[in-house]
């Protein structure tokens, strides 16, 4: 991993401190020199620990879905609802995040978010009730939802001159957490004799992610006892992505790629089990998608920031995903490693859209507004993915119809990608 940048000087606040445009596109107005935040190393470490937790609670569930269905007596449709729950939580809570950071410092919000993730993961593995399992999973996912929105804003705020580098670092950390959870959930469950251990062990990792944000939250609380003029100015010039073509294109692209991503996380292991793989091997193949995506996650932000247009990336990712889906439909067992590799490359759409959120906004306030709208609206779209895959799988007893649905979603994703490919900024469209 790239050594973390360090910085000193100004106190930590959650007020935009810069107006620097990331990437190659020039800003329309002169940028204010960025003032690095005191404790920049602590902020970076905190961001990476949060990122490691952002998908572990989801992919560990996907790897153990069969055992959880048996243990809690879930039907195929109910299992589809459980795998859809992340997108529902991310959509609902993500939309509230800009309001939260206008009232409280981002560090304080992150402390509460990581505590919710920790407590929710503990509670959901000690119940025998399907309803309680869903509710406590929703609590855990609420913490992830808020953190999803905050990380792009924190990159813009604390590391404005290293946007691509830091975005790549936290996206790689997210991918590593996703991979480890998918690969180890089944072995941990078997070692302890219960799916509950394979699912609940990640609560400890979430608890660790709270620690760096506690001192940052205490500093931010002291700094924000008096409302800052910059906050009022930001409120007066609030960015409203819902009124822009760019905002909606970003939301559709984010939604379509997330729809496919969560369908894969929720159901790919089951597809490989149905194709004849043992549960452990199916979990490892699922983990392979995210493991192979680690270098993609690291390189994509830098590559996207250097290209004059994102069209070559958008079209390449579409080609990889299309080949993977067709391969999974025709030969899911014989060429499984190839399809896993192609899926990993196609899922580079996720670090691409996270990077594009920063590239399409000039300010931290614009970034959090665009991040909240693209992710919350996108997750409403994405919620259809695991649910419809589950319904189609149960109705047809096979994977041809679910994969056909994912190909349609990919076409929608590509169309939106062509819109966001051209360099421009959300602040210019309000």
At a glance:
With 430 residues, the protein is mostly helical.
What does this structure look like?
It is a single chain. With 430 residues, this protein is mostly helical. The protein is built from 20 helices and no strands. The protein has helices spanning 40-53, 56-63, 65-72, 76-94, 97-103, 106-124, 130-158, 163-192, 195-200, 202-210, 213-223, 229-236, 245-274, 279-306, 311-330, 336-346, 349-359, 364-382, 384-396, 400-420. Helix 13 packs antiparallel against helix 20 (400-420). Residues 1-38 and 225-236 have low confidence and may be disordered.
User: Could you tell me how far the N terminus lies from the C terminus, measured between alpha carbons in angstroms?
Assistant: 38 Å
Number of helices: 20
What does the average pLDDT come to?
A: 81
**Uncertain ranges:** 1-38, 225-236
Report the sheet with the most strands, covering strand number, pairing sense and barrel closure. none
Topology:
Elements: H1 40-53, H2 56-63, H3 65-72, H4 76-94, H5 97-103, H6 106-124, H7 130-158, H8 163-192, H9 195-200, H10 202-210, H11 213-223, H12 229-236, H13 245-274, H14 279-306, H15 311-330, H16 336-346, H17 349-359, H18 364-382, H19 384-396, H20 400-420
